Amino acid sequence: MKYVFYDLETTGKNKDWSQIIQFGAVCIDEQFNELDRFETRCRLKTGLVPEPEALIVNNTSINNLEKTNSSHYDLTKDIKRKIENWSPAIFFGYNSINFDEEIIRKTFFKTLFNAYITQLEGNKRGDILNVIRSFHNYDNTYLKTTINSKGNSSFKLEDLAKENQINHKAHDAMGDVLATIDLAKIVKKNDYDIWKQILLTCSKKDVDNFINLNENFSLNEFSFGKLKTSLVTSICNHPNYNYPQCYDLSIDPEPILSLSYQDLKKRMKEKPKFLKTLGHNKHPSIFNNNYFFEINNISKTEKHLFENRSAQIRSNKEFIERIKLILDEEYHDKQNIKPQNDILAEESLYFGGFPSNKDKNLMEEFHLSSWKDKYIISERFEDKRYEYFAKKIIYEEAPENLPTEVFNKFHKQIGEQIMTLEDVPWFTIPKAYKQIDDLRNKYSIEKNSERLNFVEEINIYIQKMEKVYSATKFL
What we know:
Layout: E1 2-10, E2 20-28, E3 34-41, H1 52-58, H2 62-67, H3 72-86, E4 89-93, H4 96-110, E5 124-127, H5 128-138, E6 146-147, E7 153-154, H6 157-163, H7 173-190, H8 192-199, H9 204-213, E8 217-223, E9 226-237, E10 244-248, H10 254-257, H11 261-267, E11 275-277, E12 285-288, H12 289-295, H13 300-314, H14 317-337, H15 357-368, H16 371-378, H17 384-397, H18 404-419, H19 429-445, H20 449-470
Parallel strand pairs: 1-4, 4-5
Antiparallel strand pairs: 1-2, 2-3, 6-7, 8-9, 8-12, 9-10, 10-11
Helix pairs in contact: 5-7, 6-7, 7-8, 15-16, 16-17, 19-20
């Protein structure tokens, strides 16, 4: 199966509201021979306020963004075509499950494409950050790490590249991709068993199959700068989310199994937590039980203890049913207090359900149609979110095709959003000015004239935006 290593550079950290400005990817075979590569950039979307700090980190100047011919809609279509061309493949990134994958999903969702493209048509996905942590945890002789300010090993891509003599152009999409491939090569070369295992957990189906074949197994979790390895056994799936629920075998089950419903519900909120949720569609770091046994020097007697605990828990059907009932009750309690009306379309990927067949067909028709016809199609969506996204794409790409009242509605709404002084999740013009002032102070102290010019370029761009959108209050 082919591997695709990819990376994004974005205008900010918020996964619902930031946009992609650079995409880089390399497609390789199982022997790590390069088959193809692809890189694209785009200009800023109309009405989107970039985070100055993000542009500094990415070293992406406003001047370069404005000179780019491709729009964000063009970039998204190009990424989609390339992914489809390379499929089926395993899509790898660095810290990609928590960031890049979410950005891709939400970008495709807002651009009227299938949000789950890296998991369709036989595609799978993995995260090399998780792989590197597990590899180093098992044997730290092959990968050098530096210690960060908190006294923990740093697994930042740029730090690992520097420590292991990997040529790396940091915070550039293609540069990050090539460095990530080199790290993956180190794992594959020095511990092929770990590499083989991580390939077996790149899809929900593969993870479920692994769990079914292993009565107990090793689970790596990363929290507060530390990696913890547990030996767990899967006892059931969450009744609503369907995630496997695993019992931590380091905790004696004897006093827990006999608890009443209310006492068990209370105990589930207390520490140490005996129940762990396994994100089986998020490339979990799971290995056979020998991984746990070897790094902890587990004796034969202790192995028998864990095996007995596993059998004891899995055979107690009443206990498992109580767990499922409690999880279901907690789920519905959360649903009842969730402020659904406060969720904006951009934030609704996981709340509004999947598109109907009619809306799926309209999405395809939308992309194939002229800009004039796109507006007519936008009026036919059943789901108001897709109607909104369709019209917003037209506003950003070809606003002359919107009726005046529709254009004014979007223009005014965006103006209100980006000019607000309230603490909102998206990035605003007042937030941008605050960052610009902070960056000016920083680079003035450092006497860094190059960076000061870079920041001033951003400031001029934001001032132009403010001038355009401050007038929307009169619409």
